[in-house]
Amino acid sequence: MYIAEQLKKKSMAEYLLYMWQVEDMLRAYGLDVEKMAAEYIPQFGLDAEKSEELKGWYENLVEMMREEGVTEKGHLQVNKNIIILLNDLHAQLLKSSKHPFYSAAYYKALPFIVELRAKSEESQEKGEIENCFDALYGVMLLRAQKKEVSAETATAIDNIAKFVGMLSDYYQKDKAGELEV
Question: What is the phi/psi pair of residue 140, to 5°?
């Protein structure tokens, strides 16, 4: 909750990846918030009040996951909405002649995005922006597990990360009313 609030102000991309991680962590605990309160939350060293707030936040997320049918896989609608907003902004930025560096970053990442989409039917059903986040999240998980990431994958992820980072920066500017499209 506290990390999510900070990330949301700083970078929508980092926030979204964090929230996907939270969804998976909740699943790893079997959606058992009491178990999390005993085993996971104490590691943050929060006082009793903040620990209770965090527990309540996790309880709300678990309830939303149950209501939305994403207890085993998938993402909460609030997280899907972020992808929708980023998709919309992406389309606007590509149409605009005011952001050539954004277009250049997208076209540099595009061959890697196309390759990702070709690898599975599920990827083809999703939009390019969600494919990018899937790739970033997958590599994040591999690195967390200390698994090797090939040089080709690292190159692809580097290009995708730069593109998504730029989109995230433009999102923050747009939200602050500082972006001309």
Answer: -60, -45
